[in-house]
Amino acid sequence: MIATRKDVAELAGVSVATVSYVINRTKNVTAEVQERVEAAIRELNYSPNLVARSLATRKTQHVAMLVNNLKNPYYTEMLAGAQAVASKKGYIVSIIMVDYAAPEETLKLASRGLDGVIVATVQADETIRFLDGRIPYATASENLYCSYKEGIFEAVKSLKEYGHTDIAFLSGLRMGESHERYRYLTEALKYYNLPVNRNLMVDGNQREETNEAAGVEAMQDLIDRRESFTAVFAVNDLMAFGAMSALAKNGLKVPEDVSVIGCDNLEIGRYFLPALSTLDVSAFKMGKYLMKELISKIENKSETRKIVISAYVERASVGRRKE
Predict the structure, then answer these.
(1) With contact defined as beta carbons under 8 Å apart, do 240 and 234 qualify?
(2) Hey, is 321 helix, strand or coil?
(3) Distance from C-alpha of 120 to C-alpha of 141, rounded to nearest angstrom
(4) What is the sign of the dihedral through the CA atoms of 168, 172, 174 and 176?
(5) Domain boundaries, position 138
(6) What is the value of pTM for the model shown?
(7) Buried-exposed string 307-322: b where 16+ CB fall within 10 A, e elsewhere
(8) DSSP letter (8 states) at residue 266
(9) Over the stretch 120-142, which tens digit does the pLDDT of each residue have?
(10) Nearest 5°: CA angle at 119, between 114 and 121?
């Protein structure tokens, strides 16, 4: 026999209305009452009528994460973090592949029965402007501050201690002086009295991706120009993987000939050969933070901007400069 809301109320020793308050989150109850109701729901294996609940609350308990590249494991890890929070709060999470250059189409997707969305990438200004005021959203650029300074300074200090002076930077984005990772790298080089060689700063030119292919292309560009460098800092782990592949194809060993550092600390990096040194900016934690912020907005609760501090994780891809 299927349990009803009345059965839950009787087992928990509360009114049917109180059970509704707990399920729909429409009114605050004491922690003790909420625990009794939730225990009764679990014991009876009660499943709320989601359609009826959405009609009563005008909420669907359904949110989505917007991404533009399903192949990127960074988003997979971020989604896992978001899901960990959402499931505890009773929310369903979908992932939507979008074109950030077409915000109107994004809104059509995002407004189909969704309470809110997480905008996962940094290249979504038009989409964010279009979503603003139309549907609750959370994005790293507004709800999180990730400080790369600490990790980058640690990485450069380590490279200097290993004797490296000629350090390249690879980015697949059209970056300017304001690009945070680029800016902090140049600051760190100056701080440790190392040269800032603009010829080693590959800003991608026409490339808009920061994936393995972009890493291969950027590294090959440096090699073809016969630039002198012994260490490489890539804007993310995927570009670092591509750079390592290009180095191998050109007969250069990591870290014997060139040390390589990425950014993001993707899980796969520790199993790469050699294991990739990187900046730890946990995508899983960022997904958790963003989902907490999104649910706070949906439920009209106050939210605070979270600060994520990066840390340098040294592995086998970094070694002493070859004499």
Answers:
(1) yes
(2) coil
(3) 10
(4) negative
(5) 62-145+283-309
(6) 0.77
(7) ebebebbbbebbbebe
(8) -
(9) 876 667 777 777 777 888 988 78
(10) 155
Asked if residue 251 and residue 134 are part of one domain, the reply reads no
Under a CB-based contact definition with an 8 Å cutoff, are residues 322 and 230 in contact? yes
Please report, for the domain that includes residue 301, its CATH number.
3.40.50.2300
Residues 160 and 266 in one domain: yes
Q: Which long-range contacts (CB under 8 A, 24 or more apart) does 133-136 make?
A: 134/107, 135/107, 135/110, 135/111, 136/294, 136/297, 136/298
Instruction: With residue 17 as reference, give the H or E element that holds it.
Output: helix 16-24
76-105 pLDDT per residue, tens: 999 999 999 999 888 999 988 877 666 566
* Number of domains composing the chain: 3
Q: Which helix (H) or strand (E) holds 96?
A: strand 92-97
For 61, residues 6+ apart whose C-beta sits below 8 A from its C-beta are: 50, 53, 54, 90, 91, 92, 115
Joined tokens for residue 27? 């009114």
